[in-house]
Amino acid sequence: MTVEKILELKNLQVSFETFGGEVQAVRGVDLTLHKGETLAIVGESGSGKSVTSKAIMGLIESPPGRIKNGEILFEGNNLLKYSKHQIQKVRGKDISMIFQDPMTALNPTMKIGSQIMEGLIKHQEISKHDARKRAIELLALVGIPNPDKRVDEFPHQFSGGMRQRVVIAIALACNPKILIADEPTTALDVTIQAQILDLMRDIQEKMGTSIILITHDLGVVANLAQRVAVMYGGKIIETGTLDEIFYKPKHPYTWGLLSSMPKLHAKTDKLLAIPGTPPDLRKPPKGCPFAPRCPYAMDVCIDHMPQYTASSGSQKTACWLLDERAPKVDPPSTIGVGGEA
Amino acid sequence: MIRYTFERLCYMVVTFFVIVTLTFLSMQLLPGTPYRNAAKMTKEQIAVLNETYGLNQPVPIQFVKYITNMFHGNLGYSFQYDGRSVTQILSEKFPISIELGIEAIIIGVVIGLLLGIIAGIKRNTIWDYTSMIIAVLGISIPSFIFAALLQYWFAVKYQIFPVAYWDGPINRILPAFSLSTIVIATVGRFMRTEMVEVLQSDYITTAEAKGLTTMQVIFKHSIRNALIPVITILGPLFVNIITGSLVIEKIFAIPGIGEQFVTSIYTNDYPMIMGTTIIYSSMFIFIVFIVDVLYGVIDPRIRLAGGK
Asked: pLDDT by residue (tens digit) across A234-263?
């Protein structure tokens, strides 16, 4: 299978000016998204995942935000060099986004039909009549019953799960090449979460969209993603295929993440957590950002950021433990996924 | 929507009756008599006058009589102007105050919204600060000071506009503008706050993510949502403007209702007080009603909550 790169981030750095000083939210992120794949970016709150996705959309508000460095190559063109007008033509057409909270992501005073049609009319230059027809099709596609009636309803007449479907319909309106889903299920009940994930998988099969899935929920990742990037402290500390990250993780932070997932057949009732808090990105650490919380940290970790070590064609890990001079450490037994460990 | 409107209509009628009753009763508590030379009159003379005006009857009967007359469009006869009916005086003076009020509101809303929208969009820039300084000035300086200043500059010094009177359209400009300062300030500040809030909401990000231009985002998604709370303050503001035009009317020698109202209170001109109160309050209630209905039109959530 030849894989075509559709999006590539090179050394992306994003900062925010705050009263407390410059917050370096994203500190040199390299990422590749292939055509038709789902890439999950996981990490805890404040690790820079949402900022990365907003940067791709050109939605970083400036000031206070600033893209300091790097390139965002979409089909080979650097989006950061685009004018405001040019980026508006990409947004919603080639790259679109699903937001976290469906309760607030829709304009309360506009019929959902009109909210779907807007993007269509803007990007595809079709008539209102055709746009409306397409909006009804889209509502049907995302599984909303009676779409021809509901197209004229307002957001408050929809439940949370239904609104998230509408948000997805808006994002899909122009058949985007890339769909960025920023925690698409966080605000939903578990049963609705499963439905929305099924819907996203369906859509990807039907339309071949590439998806960037941003989440801190490893269950969602396992459900949807083919490749995973683990972010911590504004950096990607490990990437690999789903299986590699879940079954052969190399980074202690990834171990921690997997250990802290509740397990069905665990012998203890205790929920494992990673002790400590994420680094203060106003004064980013010189070395590995995870070092202060890492049970295996060595002196070198504090002062020097490790380079990536490739352990397979697809897995890369930034950790000194993988250096040949480092002591051999086996992953803890608690990382097992689900009931299989 | 129909049921919602009907409900509002019922509230409106109830409120009106409460106001009329309370005004009528509290007027009975006013000290003194409506007769100019009461001190020099004999008891018999006063009794005769009371007889003529029906003031010797028990209060409930007076009230019922008044209400019946009111339904026939008769608000009684003024005590200060012999033989002129209250309706006649009101219909002469009231339209002038209303016109002035409407002009002031239109000027105020247009300028206020513009200032508020600009300040909201260009938050924390020189545009924002300038707009908000104008707004603070408008709130803190009483309108009669503006009136006097405008009069001095534009009518006395440069003689662009007439100093006073109510003759032609050009006479309207200065009083309407001075009256509108409070509207500009209130609407401007309100609109700014709402715009800032709306522009930070998630659905604006959604709209931007669709690839809409900044103008489309502002006009199609922001302004309408920001207007909802602003509309609620417009009604009371309008009534405020009309009842508060007293000083402005005096400065520009405008024959409106404001001055009339005050005179009728210190002369105990009961029918005039009642008439003016009825007009003011029915206007107030009517505007609140209109605002409620408008609110429902703009915000679908309200319309449906009451109308299913």
From this structure: 888 899 998 888 888 888 888 888 888 777
Which residues of chain B does A170 touch, with a Cβ-Cβ cutoff of 8 Å? 206, 210
> For residues B165 and B157, what is the distance between their CA atoms, to the nearest angstrom?
18
CB neighbours of B65 closer than 8 A, spacing ≥ 6?
B54, B57
Nearest neighbour of B203 by CB, restricted to A96, A104, A171: A104
Residue B162 and residue B149: Cα distance in Å, rounded? 14
Cβ-Cβ contacts under 8 Å between A and B: the total is 81
| Least confident stretch, A241-255, B43-57, B75-89, B294-308 | B294-308
Pairing mode of beta strands A210-215, A178-182: parallel
| B122 close contact with A: CB closer than 8 A | no
In angstroms, the separation between the Cα of residue A20 and the nearest Cα of chain B is 19
- Tell whether B262 is covered by a domain: no
CB–CB contact A118 B207 (8 Å) = yes
Is residue A201 domain-shared with residue A239, that is, in the same domain? no
Q: How many CB atoms are closer than 10 A to CB A73?
A: 17
Helix (H, G, I), strand (E, B) or coil at A244: helix
ipTM entry: 0.81
- The reply to whether A341 falls in a domain is no
Give the gap in angstroms from C-alpha B9 to the nearest C-alpha of chain A: 25
> Is B211's CB within 8 Å of A109's CB?
no
Identify the CATH number of the domain in which residue A130 sits.
Answer: 3.40.50.300
3-state secondary structure of A71: strand
Q: Indicate yes or no: CB of A157 within 8 angstroms of CB of B304.
A: yes
Nearest-by-CA chain A residue for B228: A109
Tell whether the torsion through CA atoms of B77, B80, B81 and B86 is positive or negative: negative
For the stretch A272-301, pLDDT in tens is: 788 888 888 888 888 888 888 888 888 888
Both A251 and A207 in one domain: the answer is no
Task: Indicate whether A265 and A156 sit together in one domain.
Answer: no
Distances (CA, A) of A134 to A143, B143, B267, B289: 14, 55, 72, 40
| Closest residue to A118, CB basis, from B212, B225, B299 | B212
The chain A residue lying nearest B295, using CA atoms, is A109
Candidates B208, B298, B304; nearest CB to A109: B298
Going by C-alpha positions, the residue among A57, A50, A61 that lies closest to residue A183 is A50
Q: Vertex B98, ends B225 and B145: CA angle to 5°?
A: 85
